[in-house]
Known about the structure:
Largest sheet of chain B: 6 strands, mixed
Mean pLDDT of chain A: 92
Distance between the termini of chain B: 37 Å
Mean pLDDT of chain B: 92
Structural class of chain A: mainly beta
Oligomer: heterodimer
Shape of chain B: globular
Amino acid sequence: DTAVSQTPKYLVTQMGNDKSIKCEQNLGHDTMYWYKQDSKKFLKIMFSYNNKELIINETVPNRFSPKSPDKAHLNLHINSLELGDSAVYFCASSHYIAGKETQYFGPGTRLLVL
Amino acid sequence: GQQLNQSPQSMFIQEGEDVSMNCTSSSIFNTWLWYKQDPGEGPVLLIALYKAGELTSNGRLTAQFGITRKDSFLNISASIPSDVGIYFCAVRRNDYKLSFGAGTTVTVRA
């Protein structure tokens, strides 16, 4: 059973297009995240949602808009794609037990903007 | 910006060797984490450290939370081919966000 799933796994698109990436977790976690991993493998948080509410919004262009229809889903919509948006995007979810948080990552969406 | 210095950046190791990598910071953090990312996959949590001086093992992996709370190391004993991947240290900041190191890429020579 997949804990955190993302679709699509690969996304190749033209500059200027609008695209969405979907994420679902079946772990019952309250918190979900989007991370971006660049070509040098550096991982940086973009957004975090807790119970469908935005709690972390790093310095990310307005072209990126997350949407959480329910606790189990956090989608990422990207408008007017640019070459620099090419990266691997990871969704993650987490829970707290006894004050300790564990994050589980999805398999990633490899976005290539041409 | 990036707050963690992870080294080495990459390493080739011989199967059966013990290896070590470390992560340092100029700031104090109360939670240190080590993740592994296999090729084409997302990072997976290996070890979480919550107490300064704590030494924790997970199979052939051992990690320590530095007493100054500004560093951590990860040891892999008796390397095997499936240890290939990228190992990331991470810290939990006061705003609860995770900050990741740049990663150590491990390649095993059979």
